[in-house]
Design a protein that fits this description.
21 helices, Polysacc_synth, membrane, PG_synth_SpoVB, transmembrane helix, 548 residues, cell membrane, mainly alpha
């Protein structure tokens, strides 16, 4: 635990896991309040919102983290501090511009999303209202994000972790309390409830900003001490420095848009090509809510670990590159990939094996056939988590080593792959076709990015693979345990009969799976190896023979 990157990643991991888990738990009562069509409307607003958040911040928070880390390592604390101040005002302007753009484009986007179909549950006016309401959050989120970037650049992950967690809690309270009041007390419609729910992003953002400002007041004396320790240097041209900051920020913003851009492709093609396959319009929209809303909320839990590794990794790699320490660069990037796989691989395989009871547990539907449909969507869709996690970490590495422009080229090609995949695969495989198209697109990005990273850093593939092989082997053994437990449970437990049985079913099978995987990881010292000790297939063989 002496590794600074690992400490920062663990702090963010705990926070992001709790945040994402809460983000799933609230969906259960929320979907019961607004129904599947309400969830679809909610997702129609959140997908473009996520895109505009990225556009309105331009990746500057992460760019600031990298910028601050670089100039702090060089002792130029004054340079880092001045750029932080300039970036705040720049973000205010971008946030206002993003708000105005999203608000005014909402009617056009709503028409595109609904593909001109009037038989869908939500109207163009409903979607327009939801998008315009959530756009107000763009006025506060970009400014809040710049503070997080400054703290991360100073290797302080606590403000980001606390503010993210509190932001989620406040948002959920507003969503559930507001929706319950509108529907059950006021007697309003589900459309009104969804409208207030998306507005909660703005209210939660204000709360998170106040927490970040508290941490700023708390730490400003320390930062002022560092400021006085700035080393003498030639006067900096702040136009050039801002250009440097933008060169860090914009590529990261574009790379971070991958999931959102893929979802935009889905939003603009899914309904059309699903209708082409002959499905009823209501079923098409509800399946989209399961795919783009429910599924992504579940898989973002393991993906959040990759994101939490990626955020501190960028300034950490920049710090070591500035210091000329390539050995530490290689060590940290390999460790980040291995830790990502250590958590994500067993998680997504377990979710795929338990797809239907997991869907029932969180999103149980009284509509005949919907639980089975949700389970089918989750079965293949759960595996998307691994692709999203690996993409997140390899693009963070590209950013950290200054080769982010390669990632942008790869992403551009992958968007074409995703679009063509949807066109050809959705009419044949329906929702699974959209999932497969996304997997193919991510595979291209990940593979090409790893080739660039290998060329630029010289990390040893064998060093990476020897632990990854163990992770996949242990996951395979875990899967056999889960399948065996499922076979036994199916003999006397019908999780379709009662909602509560799905909780018991998942708890038992999940516990056995977790016990098997982490038991193997502990027994063969994989957990210890990931925290710095050497690990090799030879040691595996010696351990097995010794224990015999």
């Amino acid at each position: 635990m002496g590794n600074r990157f690992l400490k920062g990643a663990m702090i963010l991991s705990i926070s992001m896991f709790a945040t994402k888990f809460l983000g799933i738990l609230y969906v259960i009562p929320f979907q019961q309040l607004v129904g599947t069509s309400g969830m679809a409307l909610y997702n129609y607003a959140y997908t473009p919102y996520a895109l505009f958040i990225s556009l309105s911040t331009l990746g500057i928070p992460v760019g600031i983290a990298k910028f601050v880390s670089k100039y702090n390592a060089a002792g130029e604390y004054d340079t880092a501090r001045k750029m932080f101040r300039y970036a705040i005002w720049f973000m205010v302007g971008l946030g206002c511009l993003g708000f105005l753009t999203m608000y005014n484009l909402a009617p056009w986007y709503a028409q595109v999303v609904l593909a001109g179909q009037k038989e869908l549950a939500n109207s163009i006016e409903d979607v327009t209202m939801a998008i315009q309401t959530i756009s107000f959050a763009l006025l506060i989120i970009p400014v809040m994000a710049i503070f997080r970037g400054f703290f991360q650049g100073n290797q302080n992950m606590i403000p980001t972790s606390v503010s993210q967690f509190v932001e989620q809690v406040v948002r959920i309270i507003f969503i559930l309390a507001g929706s319950y009041y509108i529907i059950n007390i006021k007697g309003g419609s589900t459309k009104e409830a969804v409208g207030f729910s998306v507005f909660s992003a703005f209210l939660a953002g204000i709360t998170a900003f106040l927490i970040l400002y508290y941490y700023w007041i708390k730490n400003v004396k320390h930062y002022n001490k560092l400021l006085r320790k700035s080393v003498p240097h030639e006067p900096r041209n702040y136009g050039n420095l801002f250009t440097e900051l933008i060169s860090y920020a914009i590529p990261f913003a574009i790379l971070g848009l991958a999931t959102n851009l893929f979802q935009i492709v889905d939003q603009t093609t899914y309904n059309h090509y699903m209708l082409v396959s002959g499905l009823d319009g209501v079923i098409v929209e509800d399946s989209y809510g399961m795919y783009a809303g429910s599924l992504y909320k579940i898989i973002m839990i393991p993906v959040s670990f990759a994101i939490s590794f990626g955020q501190p990794l960028i300034p950490e790699l920049t710090h070591h590159l500035t210091a000329g320490n390539m050995k530490s660069v290689r060590k940290n990037l390999v460790l980040a990939i291995q830790l990502t796989c250590f958590i994500t691989v067993p998680a997504v395989v377990g979710m795929a094996l338990l797809s239907e009871p997991i869907y029932i547990m969180f999103f149980n539907s009284s509509t005949p056939g919907y639980n089975a449909m949700g389970g089918d969507i989750f079965r293949l869709g759960s595996l998307l988590g691994l692709f999203m996690a690996l993409y997140s970490i390899v693009t963070a590495i590209l950013q950290g080593i200054g080769k982010q422009w390669y990632g942008i080229i790869f992403l551009g090609v992958s968007l074409v792959i995703k679009y063509l995949g949807n066109v050809f695969l959705i009419p044949i495989f329906q929702t699974d076709g959209a999932t497969m198209a996304t997997m193919i697109a991510y595979t291209f990005c990940i593979t090409m990015s790893l080739i660039v990273i290998k060329r630029e850093t010289g990390f040893k593939v064998s060093q990476l693979l020897r632990r990854l092989v163990a992770i996949f082997v242990f996951t395979g053994i875990m899967a056999l345990f889960v399948i065996a437990v499922k076979f036994i449970l199916d003999l006397f437990m019908d999780y379709n009969a009662r909602h509560m049985l799905s909780y018991i079913y998942v708890a038992i099978a999940g516990f056995i799976g977790v016990l098997a995987y982490f038991g193997l990881a502990w027994y063969f010292d994989l957990i210890t190896a990931l925290f710095g000790m050497k690990f090799s297939p030879k040691q595996l063989k010696e351990r097995i023979l010794r224990r015999r």
